[in-house]
Amino acid sequence: MKKHVPNALTCANLLSGCIGIVFAFKGDLTITAYAVLMSGIFDFFDGLSARLLNVKSEIGKELDSLADMVSFGFLPSVVMFQLIAQSNYTSAYLPYVAFLIAIFSALRLAKFNIDTRQTEDFIGLNTPMNTLFIVSLPFIQKDHPEIINSTFLLIGLTILMSWLLVSEIKIYSLKFGSLNWKDNKVKYIFLMVSALLIAFMKFAAIPFVLVLYISSSFLHFRNNEL
């Protein structure tokens, strides 16, 4: 029975992603954001449970990638599609640029599955973090509509995030090999600062968390090389 636990959690990730997509097409991007959070939680615990129960399998690996493609590939594309469609300069075809995110997410997930350099950490931005950033934009839009309603900004963000997904930037995983402060101090500081930002700013904190994640990864790997 225990061998089915990780796959059940992966399927829950997929289900949450599907629900989020339905609400994204309806224009309810708030519910979509909470569905993404649920997908992220299930995605974290499916891998953790597989390691704890020692029931890793090839089908689990493939199922995880397929679920992630829906929840963290197609879903953020739909959110960006809606944002571009509602922006201040649009046409019938321009919003479809948003699906570059789905294409590059697929490339990123396929690359991850065969890249032996990514067994411990990431090369390129991981899809859940990319998705969290994109679903935070509607929340920022409520307070700063003049910024998020810019079509050119949204197109630029689509291209930038697509590039980050398949870039060669090394980014640490939040899996801990040990709880040692010396080996993980950058990760601990990142988590603490991120928690404070989210506590005060909620979803609007995500862009700052993303910048902190990438910059702290640079420091983390630089310190490890010294």
SSE blueprint:
Blueprint: H1 5-26, H2 29-53, H3 58-85, H4 100-114, E1 122-123, H5 127-143, H6 145-148, H7 151-166, E2 170-171, H8 181-201, H9 206-225
Antiparallel strand pairs: 1-2
Helix pairs in contact: 1-2, 1-3, 2-3, 2-5, 3-4, 3-5, 4-7, 8-9
Q: What does this protein look like?
A:
With 226 residues, the chain is mainly α. It has a single domain (2-171), classed as CDP-alcohol phosphotransferase transmembrane (TM) domain (Four Helix Bundle (Hemerythrin (Met), subunit A), Up-down Bundle), CATH 1.20.120. The protein contains nine helices and two strands, in the order H-H-H-H-E-H-H-H-E-H-H. The chain has helices spanning 5-26, 29-53, 58-85, 100-114, 127-143, 145-148, 151-166, 181-201, 206-225; strands spanning 122-123, 170-171. It has a two-stranded antiparallel ribbon with strand order 1-2. Helix 1 packs antiparallel against helix 2, helix 3 runs antiparallel to helix 4 (100-114) and helix 4 runs parallel beside helix 7. It starts with a helix and ends with a helix.
